[in-house]
Design brief:
Elements (H helix, E strand, L loop, with lengths): L8 H6 L14 H14 L8 H8 L3 H13 L3 E3 L5 E3 L1 H12 L2 H17 L2 E8 L2 E8 L14 E3 L4 H8 L3 H10 L12 H14 L2 E4 L6 E9 L5 E10 L5 H20 L6
Helix pairs in contact: 3-4, 6-10, 7-9
């Protein structure tokens, strides 16, 4: 859940950097580059990036990158700290807030997330699919002193997270192909790195209705996730319970699994799901 590492240009692109269409009349290169810049800053968190590092990741000159940053800073989309490092600005938070307020899943889920937090005393996440990744769109923190670090807007892979596997198990099989083609990169010694093992795990998820992450995405973190469906039985998101591995033992994960699944199904009914 910690996503504070500086990304290479290739990884930044995989995080969602905008690609310019081959037809020059179809898109604006300037706008695409600006969004690429915002994408790069979005995964840096409080650390931020200096001008040189931003220019390297964008593969642009320092002077051109500086013009982009100054323009975005004047618009409030980017802010600069005392170290001359750049971060996303409050304008981005404002825009994100407008989007989340219009998102039915986000609005309908709050009571369910708080209920699950009250019952488990662990951190609760709501996420939606984004290509071969998931994005956190809501969170309720654990009241305990030892809890998870994560933030709304963070992206994590599907194949090594409970949220992602819960979505992947009930999605179109082509999505599994896309995930495998993107690469099952080991993030910890417990990460699933073969297609056969992933498909076997997803079959188990379909049978029980919830997924586990036993330190597969991050050492020291365990999670249980369950899918959320709409009226057409399409997966629109997932809900999860996360906690330190010392608390999220295998026995506790199996005990909490049905609870997480049932909350996911009750939330699904809000969107017309009836199976």
């Amino acid at each position: 859940m910690r996503l504070q590492k500086q990304l290479s240009p290739a990884k930044a692109a995989r995080r969602g950097t905008i690609r310019v269409h081959n037809n020059p009349n179809a898109t604006s290169t300037t706008v695409a580059r600006a969004f690429s810049l915002l994408d790069i800053l979005s995964v840096q968190g409080a650390v931020g990036l200096g001008l040189t590092d931003v220019a390297k990741q964008l593969r642009m000159s320092r002077s051109t990158t500086h013009r982009y940053l100054v323009t975005l800073e004047r618009l409030g989309a980017v802010e600069r700290d005392d170290r001359d490092h750049f971060h996303l600005g409050l304008k981005m938070l404002e825009l994100a807030g407008f989007t989340l307020n219009q998102n039915d899943l986000h609005n309908q889920s709050r009571a369910f997330l708080e209920e699950l937090a009250d019952q488990t005393h662990e951190t609760i996440h709501l996420a939606v699919p984004a290509g071969t990744e998931v994005i956190y769109v809501a969170k309720v923190d654990s009241p305990r002193s030892l809890r998870m670090f994560s933030y709304i807007g963070a992206r994590v892979p599907m194949y090594c997270t409970a949220l992602g596997k819960a979505m992947l198990a009930f999605s179109n099989p082509e999505l599994v192909n896309q995930v495998v083609r993107a690469g099952l990169v080991p993030r910890t010694p417990n990460t699933i790195t073969s297609r056969h093992t992933l498909e076997t795990e997803l079959a188990k998820v379909r049978t029980r209705g919830y997924a586990f992450d036993s330190e597969e995405n991050e050492i020291g973190v365990g999670c249980i996730g369950a899918p959320i469906f709409d009226y057409s039985a399409r997966v629109v998101g997932a809900i999860s319970v996360s906690g330190p591995a010392a608390r999220m033992t295998s026995a506790r994960q199996h005990a909490l699994g049905p609870l997480v699944r049932d909350v996911g199904l009750r939330l699904s009914k809000r969107f017309g799901y009836s199976r």
